[in-house]
Amino acid sequence: METIGDGGQAVNLNQTTDPTGYTPTAALDSEPPGGYCQPEVRYRAFRAALAGVDLGSFDIRIIHWLVGWDDPTVRTVVSLLWRARQAGEAAGMCRGGGGACRRRTGLCAVPLMTPGAAVS
C-alpha cells in the first residue's frame, strides 16, 4: 500500500483550479479547457488530487491506465476528485462547527448523499 502525498495538504474551498493548474474545480457543463499535456502532467494532477489517500497496487495501476486517456477525460476525472475532496473538507468543517458553521460559511447548504440513494 502507498500513500500519495503527505496528507497534510489543505484544500482551498474557494479555489477555481486544482493546485497544478491542470483542470477547473468547478462543476463542468462542457469539455474542460486546455490542450494536450504530457502523461507526466496528467499523473502529477492525479497525485495532487489524491494526496494523503492510501493506494494499493491495483489503484496505482488504474491511475496509470487513466493517465493514458485523452486530456478532456482526464481533466474531468481529476476535477471530480478535487470536487469530492472539497465537498469532504466542507462537510468535515460543518460537522465540527454544527449549525453555526452553516450560518457562517454557507458551505453545508447542499445535503450530503445517503449511500445507495439515487443520483438525480
Inertia-based shape: globular
First-residue to last-residue Cα separation: 35 Å
Cα gyration radius (Å): 16 Å
- Looking across the biggest beta sheet, what order are the strands in? 1-2
List the uncertain runs: 2-13, 99-115
Question: What's the order of the H and E elements?
Answer: EHEHH
Question: Total number of helical segments?
Answer: 3
Q: How many beta-strand elements?
A: 2
Q: Structural class from helices and strands?
A: mainly alpha
- Kindly report the average pLDDT value: 77
User: How many structurally independent domains?
Assistant: 1
Ordered list of secondary-structure elements with their pairings:
Elements lengths: L1 E2 L35 H11 L4 E2 L1 H11 L3 H35 L15
Antiparallel strand pairs: 1-2
Brief account:
The protein is mostly helical and 120 residues long.
Defining traits:
mainly alpha, two-stranded antiparallel sheet, 3 helices
Describe this structure in words.
- By secondary structure, the chain is mostly helical.
- It has helices spanning about 40-50, 55-65, 70-105, and strands spanning about 1-5, 55.
- The protein has three helices and two strands; from the N terminus they run βαβαα.
- It has one domain (about 1-105).
- It has a two-stranded antiparallel ribbon.
